[in-house]
Fold:
Amino acid sequence: MNKVINLETTRQIEFIDITSLIRKEVEARNCREGICFLYVPHTTAALTINENADPDVIRDLNHTMEKLVPVKGNYFHREGNAHAHVKASLLGGSTFIFIRDGKLLLGTWQGIYFCEFDGPRRRSLYLRIMQENSTY
Amino acid sequence: MNKVINLETTRQIEFIDITSLIRKEVEARNCREGICFLYVPHTTAALTINENADPDVIRDLNHTMEKLVPVKGNYFHREGNAHAHVKASLLGGSTFIFIRDGKLLLGTWQGIYFCEFDGPRRRSLYLRIMQENSTY
Amino acid sequence: MNKVINLETTRQIEFIDITSLIRKEVEARNCREGICFLYVPHTTAALTINENADPDVIRDLNHTMEKLVPVKGNYFHREGNAHAHVKASLLGGSTFIFIRDGKLLLGTWQGIYFCEFDGPRRRSLYLRIMQENSTY
Structure:
């Protein structure tokens, strides 16, 4: 199973909460115990897990990333999206979440974010579930 | 198997070496070949693997993180822990280590650290082992 | 299976494109569907996935990392490689790529990079494949 999830981003920089989307994908399958792996096949987007209660948390993340790696900086890469490549490597394009009793095992305040740094674009996200094969 | 490990942190910012704790968990199970996955269900804590011989390495990591994302900064999030959320995303809250011949396959100088950025608190850490199911 | 790949780096800081190396390892095994996990057992090296078409992208990544965590800084660790330890934690020493139909499922522009921050050295990289054990 290699599920491809399609996303459309609408701004240059955007943090999209994909928690309910991923939850639905996981619950639609009958894996009771395992791990859900997520992978972004792009080089100017990333994934991060952080608080989804107060949207200011994500604003702070974005502002800090922008302070550290400004959109307009002194870069070699001429396409205007060098910052986006660096941000993608800093946050990373893959993550995983445990599945317990058929449900995504996120912490109380955790949400999964698709981080667009060079939008708007059509994006993909790969999802793969590995079922636990023993009772260790 | 979804093992929940409880931790109590004692300071606002603290890097706790959990290597022997994780090693004990892994060796207590009879998985010979596989992967040990670790996951932090919090949004102001993280995991990192780095040197555990000279404690100055972790001091430098902490000081650099603090230089890049200061505790007292100009943040939107009003709870005083915005820096902790950003640091959590930069280091990431999950990692994995291979298991070979029943043992955790860390490099010579590697230790696993639970990174507290908003303590002191009671924290959890999830551990899950996937056994290798073939001999590829 | 725990494959150890040996690498020799030739400079202090070096981003080595290991995509074709990893692809060859994966294709040499007959796993059709699964995940390829990569792990660096060192504390001054890392892995990242980013564009391998324009080498300026990696130059920008390196220059930004250097701006944020300079080689010559005010560090506690006296071995002269404190920056390398910090960079290793920021990028992270492990990653995974999906395998579909026996092939590494990278995005069009993605390459896998071994990031040396304290070379030149002999380095290792661990590779492990987990086969998908169901059709979820």
